[in-house]
Specification:
Helix 12 links the parallel strand 10 and strand 11. Helix content is 45%, strand content 17%. Helix 6 packs parallel to helix 14, helix 7 runs parallel beside helix 8 and helix 9 runs parallel beside helix 10. It is built from 14 helices and 14 strands. The model has no long low-confidence stretch (mean pLDDT 89). It is an alpha/beta fold. The chain has a 6-stranded parallel sheet, with helices on both faces. The protein has a 6-stranded mixed sheet with strand order 9-8-10-11-12-14, sandwiched between helices.
Length: 341
């Protein structure tokens, strides 16, 4: 039987002929199906390599019942996604792990509630095998909408109360890391320790507030100031703290971007760090901490590693559809001491 090609592109029939197997057997091997004996698998793979055959995606989907694509949903507007290096690091980890599983990343972000139905329709249309969703907000309807599509899902970050407990999540020990940051400031002899918090509609910010209060049970409410995880909000919050509590001598900031803004305000006001005010951040994002002056003491979380873990939990669900969903994972944090505290 002569080998067939379409123009200069080899066909599956050509692979089968070169390997001396049926077209059905060749299809199962090149498209990831099971049930083919090892010697035949080797013959088909050798033929694929010799001919330079590229598997047809549609055929592969029919055999494996997989699209080879995963949706990554970031519940933030586009400007936040591209201005906050946290998202860059998390998506990098997700992308690298998906590549290791020969899967494609489909990035979706949420500008507002009007995008929810569009995203739910896309997910329900069979375009992707599963979804990863992070930076969720407590009043977000998105998890419930994704849940109705019945596709496998993993959350990045502990979801709010009321979310489906069967859906696993990956998060760091936000509360424990906050406790360690505040204890460090206490150990330095700081007596008036403030906290610049993240948005209260996200569990990571709430957990870090709780960690602050675990150490400072009777902290003055005036020492708690609100930010939104952006650098500018950290600068504004630090200015507000200095106005209402000029005795502040230590600040735990809920993320590195806000800590960078706080340091800028302190520098502009002529306040020495750490002599007058010691500052501790949270995240340990290299792109931020290497630009702060002085170098930022912060709580490290493995942002890229958590992205990879999200993919691993999702792939476990896809590979064993009859099994229970894998357990959620809480990763440890570490205080990294530098010059700011």
């Amino acid at each position: 039987m002569p080998e067939q090609t379409t123009g200069s592109r080899p066909t599956l029939e050509a692979v089968a002929a070169r390997a001396g197997v049926s077209r059905a057997t060749a299809s199962r091997v090149v498209n990831g199906g099971a049930g083919v004996r090892a010697p035949l698998v080797d013959k088909v793979r050798r033929a694929v390599e010799e001919l330079g055959y590229v598997p047809n995606h549609a055929a592969r989907t029919l055999v494996t019942r997989r699209n080879g694509a995963v949706a990554v949903i970031i519940a933030e507007p586009e400007f936040r996604v591209f201005s906050d290096p946290f998202f860059e690091q998390q998506v990098r980890g997700i992308s690298r792990e998906l590549t290791a599983h020969d899967a494609q990343l489909v990035l979706l972000w949420v500008e507002g509630p009007g995008d929810h139905d569009r995203i739910a329709r896309y997910l329900g249309g069979g375009h992707v095998d599963g979804a990863l969703a992070f930076s969720l907000h407590n009043d977000d309807e998105l998890p419930a909408l994704i849940g109705r599509t019945r596709i496998p899902m993993v959350f990045g970050g502990r979801p709010a109360a009321g979310a489906d407990p069967a859906v696993p999540y990956v998060d760091c020990d936000n509360r424990g890391g906050a406790r360690e940051a505040v204890r460090h400031l206490v150990s330095l002899g700081r007596r008036s320790i403030a906290h610049i918090a993240g948005p209260r509609d996200q569990t990571s910010a709430l957990d870090r507030i709780d960690g602050y209060h675990d150490v400072l049970l009777d902290a003055d409410p005036e020492l708690l100031c609100q930010g939104d995880f952006t650098e500018e909000s950290g600068a504004r919050a630090m200015a507000e703290l200095l106005e209402r509590r000029p005795d502040v001598d230590g600040v735990f900031v809920s993320n590195d971007l806000m800590a960078s803004g706080a340091l800028r305000t302190l520098r502009e006001r002529g306040v020495k760090v750490p002599e007058d005010v010691a500052v501790v951040g949270f995240d340990d994002m290299a792109s931020v901490v290497r630009t702060t002056d002085p170098a930022l003491t912060t709580v490290r979380q493995d942002i890229e590693g958590m992205g990879r873990l999200m993919v691993k939990l999702l792939m476990r669900q896809l590979d064993d559809t009859g099994a229970e969903a894998p357990a959620s994972v809480i990763t440890p944090t570490t205080l990294v001491r530098r010059a700011s505290a």
